[in-house]
Amino acid sequence: MYMKADPDAAWEKLRASRANPPGKAGGGARRKTYAASLEQAEQMFRAAAVVGPATRPLQVFYGLSQAGRAIAAAAVDLKGEDWRLDGHGIKAGGFDKPFADIEIRTDAATSRGSFVRLSQLLDSPVWGRDPVRLEDVWDMLPVNLEYPLTDRNRHPALYTNDVSIHDDPHPLLHVPVCDIPDWVIDDGSRETANAFFAKYPGLAQHHEYVRRTPRPDGPPDFTRYNHGGGELRVSWLLPQGNALVEERREHLRGLTRSHGRSRWFLPAIPPTGREPHLLMAWWSVVYTLSMLARYEPAGWAGLISVDSNHHAVPVESLLKRAIDFLPGLIVATVEEVSG
Questions:
Q1: Cβ pair 252, 162 in contact under 8 A
Q2: pTM for the model
Q3: Could you tell me which of 137, 111, 142, 98 has the C-alpha nearest to residue 283?
Q4: Facing residues of 104 across strands?
Q5: How many CA atoms lie within 13 A of 190 on its CB side?
Q6: CA angle 2, 202, 151 (to 5 degrees)
Q7: What does the alpha-carbon distance between residue 90 and residue 134 come to, in Å, rounded to a whole number?
Q8: Sheet holding 262-265, edge to edge
Q9: What is the pLDDT of residues 84-118, one digit of tens each?
Q10: Cβ contacts of 71 within 8 Å, gap of 6 or more
Q11: Tell me: the pLDDT tens digits for 167-179?
């Protein structure tokens, strides 16, 4: 699903917020941190836009890290000194493994590290010593839909929207679930679709697959795309019974994560059974790339060689899109925590 991004507009909005900072960033040390961190974040992202992939992940990650400090400074739910972040709170290793199998771990839930503290703030999981494969988080980023790292069966971010929700009050939420992979559609069975949906907390408790023909016991009624993959209309039975449009939209927001103006069903982080906030999914991937570039420069140079490595173009694309999409996601996250 194509998403538009306007990073200049996002940075303009963040710069404008510094004269009257949101949430808890209205005064004192939190205000100073909010302003200084956003200035550094913007400069890092601007620098990333004019360098090549050899160093780009370093500027992108540290720009995101500084934006995280501004998010924490503005957060109304972080009291006392809890807004102060200390260290990364996330680790990457296994750089001797294939690229898709690089391992990501987090600090314990008691850590003050940026990743842990922000994950808790955003109701996003941390997983401690249990490793998560890079590929599992890579596939959660909507911008990576066209760039698989391996030929394994994928569980990508699945786009949805609320444009088909109408005014008539009834007890069901119906929405399309888009970008379902070919391997699910090719199998065609209800059992495979159910097992696939079980990986997504927002989809696991669905009520039924909406059909175009009156065969409730039939296989899922997928709509195929010409370019591969497809979609399926899905329904949920609302706990409050008959619901108006805004109530059904609110229920959908509770099942999905936002990326810009779009809504996405995300799979769970394997050890936790919970889906991440998209900012933290981005954080995991960009951090890992930055550590690979910083501590394994020869390996990184080989990875981004478009003449010899099939991962080079997907990595280049990811880093370009990070510069485009992350500023808007930062804006949305600041608004989320400061309201």
A1: yes
A2: 0.95
A3: 137
A4: 92, 132
A5: 11
A6: 55
A7: 13
A8: 158-160, 262-265, 257-259
A9: 999 999 999 999 999 999 999 999 999 999 999 99
A10: 118, 121, 330, 333, 334, 337
A11: 778 888 999 999 9
